[in-house]
Amino acid sequence: MNRLVWVDYLKTIGIIAVVFGHTRMPLSLVEWIYSFHMPLFFILSGVLLANVQFNVGLAEFYQKRISKLLYAYCIFSAIGAFHYLLTSQLGNVQEDILNVLYMRMLSICYGSATVRDPFTLYPEVLWFFPALILGLFLFYLIKRFFVRFEWPLCFLCLLLGFVLRNTILPWEFETALCAVFFIFLGSEFCAIRKSIYLNPKNPYWI
Fold first, then answer.
1. 132: closest CA among 42, 72, 34, 54?
2. Residue 123's CB: how many other CB atoms inside 10 A?
3. Residues 6+ apart with CB under 8 A from 177
4. Nearest to 160 by CA among 134, 140, 186
């Protein structure tokens, strides 16, 4: 598959938007950035699935599309856990090391940062990895076994994700449900784009 340069450009725009979204900017501008910058990455993930064959086994799909994401999540989570563990033992007041380890493991399992207790969980910087991994997995299941109903099923995932948006589920599952819909949009966009621009009989063909 040839590299899609325009996808790289959009990724760059998304990365810049993420950086600016975490700076001290007017609230209205931050809210505008947050309205599109992460959905953009999910959509682009769907674009890159346009030529994927979903009739392969789960193991093969995992190896080609998910394993690298999971590896990156584990590595950066371990680095983050080590950082928290180290800083918790510095200074005049040292936290209980077992409690810190427990909180970090809980954080990794939920894809969220723990603040005061196991029931107070907030998204952390790595939440995107488990959300995308689960989103890709769910999208694979839909394309593999329920392709005739992918439109309604992907839309149903979006609705469920919206309903569960304030619920804390393991591995950002509530966010992954929304991700499925955006991944689907990216995949459909690329398929429609190909049918328009690669069909000589189409009046828009170039």
1. 42
2. 15
3. 135, 138, 157, 158, 160, 161, 164
4. 134
> What amino acid is encoded at 71 in this protein?
Y
Query: From CA 47, how far away is CA 97, in angstroms rounded?
Result: 44
pTM of the model: 0.81
Structure-derived torsion over alpha carbons of residues 138, 139, 141, 146, reported in degrees to the nearest 10: 130
Tens digit of each residue's pLDDT (9 = 90 or more) over 47-101:
888 778 788 888 889 988 899 999 998 888 888 778 777 777 776 667 777 877 7
Residues of the chain with pLDDT under 50: 114, 117-119, 121-123, 204-206
Q: Is 113 helix (H, G, I), strand (E, B) or coil?
A: strand
Q: Which of 56, 50, 43 is nearest to 198 (CA)?
A: 50
**Which stretches within the chain are classed as H helix?**
5-21, 27-34, 37-47, 58-61, 67-88, 97-110, 128-145, 150-163, 173-197
At which residue do the structure tokens 């769907």 appear?
46
For 76, the token pair is 């950066």
Total number of residues shown for the chain: 206
Determine how many CB atoms are found less than 10 A away from the CB of residue 43: 24
